[in-house]
Amino acid sequence: MMKRLIWGDQKGVALIVALIMLLVLTLIGTSSISSTFFESKISGNERVGTKAFYAANAGIQVGLNQLPDTKLIPVTTIGTDSSCWSGSLTDKSFPKELKNLGPTFKPGYESVWGFNRYQVNASGESFKAMKEIEVQTRYGPFKGGTEYN
User: Fold this and answer.
1) Residue 91 has pLDDT above 60, yes or no
2) Which of 63, 75, 99, 132 could covalently link to 85 via disulfide, CB atoms 3.0 to 4.6 Å apart?
3) Is residue 8 part of a domain?
4) Considering its fold, how many domains does the chain have in total?
């Protein structure tokens, strides 16, 4: 008795296996391409966000350098594609002045020395990405007026 093959004549099996392998390789290639595309978009967004952060940081530096003057920082262009201003992200049209939070004392200094506390808010923008930074600092020392004569 002769064994009967389940598939009968196997002349087309190699073609079917080759087509399945080609399909699998195509799916892997397509997945790799889409993954690369999304990764490049993510890194581009990260780069733009970092530029916006550095623009806001530039605004903070301008604000700290002008203390004790609390005037506003107008919208200032930095390079060709970034800008900064004082205030929050929504204050671009009307930048806000820096805030004087009043006198304060600092540990390690006698009570005759005073400091003023300030809050500096600055925002930066680069290619429609926006970042905001807030810094509170002390400015001084100066004579606090609590000396006894």
Assistant:
1) yes
2) 75
3) no
4) 1
Among residues 133, 96, 99, the alpha carbon closest in space to that of 117 is found at 99
Q: Which amino acid is at 81?
A: D
pTM for this one?
0.74
Between the alpha carbon of residue 111 and those of residues 66, 117, 149, the distances in Å are: 26, 16, 14
Residues 116-148: tens digit of each pLDDT: 999 999 999 999 899 999 999 999 888 866 555
d(CA 7, CA 134): 74
Q: How far apart are CA 33 and CA 23, in angstroms?
A: 15
- DSSP, collapsed to helix, strand or coil, labels residue 75 as coil
Is 32 among the domain residues?
yes
DSSP one-letter code for 17: H
